[in-house]
Amino acid sequence: MMKFKSKINSELILSLTALAGLGIAGCRTTPVIHPEKPIEIVLFVQADKPRWQKSGIMIKRGQIVHCIAEGKWSDRNGTYGPEGNPELLKDHLGLSAPANALLMKIDYHTNTYLLAQVVCVGKEINVTALGKGRLLFANNASLPLGQRGEIKVTVTVAPDADEDGLSDYDEITIWKTNPLNSDSDGDGFFDNQEAAEQKARLKEKSVPPPPP
Ligand SMILES: [Ca+2]
Ligand SMILES: [Ca+2]
Q1: Taking the model in full, what pTM does it have?
Q2: How do residues 23-79 score in pLDDT, each as one tens digit?
Q3: Which one, of 171, 211, 157, 187, lies nearest residue 9 by Cα?
């Protein structure tokens, strides 16, 4: 059963966008919709480099950074995936990160200070950027030397005009919600909550029932 009460088609969204644009023209922070499909960027993160590695990707505030990491790396204790070894918990840059885990952060400069904001850890991440800057990756540098291998990371940076955690592209093409309204049907639940709920339901259905 579809939860969404209002299915807004793309044409209507474009009309609404035009109206919204007229209504708040002159406002300094008028959000702009980017309906085009975001580009995926593939890069490799080395396991034996303890420093933050540049991805060459610039992030703006409000964009969604989707990151999928795959592959393996090892240290003298074992071989791990991007999620690391959850039994070796370390306090890393204020995060309780699994040892050897892939870490991602956005770093940006002001006039005199370097501000580092660690945004996530793990093998699949979807976060909304709270600041702008370069996207950097690192393994967990708190492990002893001797790590080797690399992990392939696929990054998609997608604009999110209403900052509800769903990209403009996904709202228009998948969820049929309004990319300028974080609660398109006005029922008090944000679009990303409703999308996550629907995804979970679809996943449940795809799992075959246990044998009798
Ligand atoms: Ca959105
Ligand atoms: Ca809603």
Answers
A1: 0.72
A2: 444 445 688 999 999 999 999 988 877 678 889 999 988 899 999 999 888 877 788
A3: 171
Residues of the chain above pLDDT 90, percent: 34
Domain ranges of the chain: 40-158
Give me ligand 1 centre to Cα 191, in Å. 8
- Cα 106 to averaged position of ligand 2 atoms, centre (Å): 30
CA separation for the pair 180, 22 (Å, rounded): 13
How much of the chain is helix, strand and coil, in % rounded to 5?
Answer: 20, 35, 45
Greatest pairwise CA separation for the chain in angstroms: 66
Rounded distance from Cα 104 to ligand 2 centre (Å): 30
Report in angstroms the alpha-carbon separations of 152 from 79, 80, 99, 146: 15, 13, 18, 19
User: Three-state DSSP class for 197?
Assistant: helix
In this structure, which topology does domain 40-158 adopt according to CATH?
Jelly Rolls (2.60.120)
The neighbourhood of ligand 1, an ion, using CB within 5 A, equals: 160, 162, 164, 166
Closest by CA to 68, choosing from 106, 125, 140, is 125
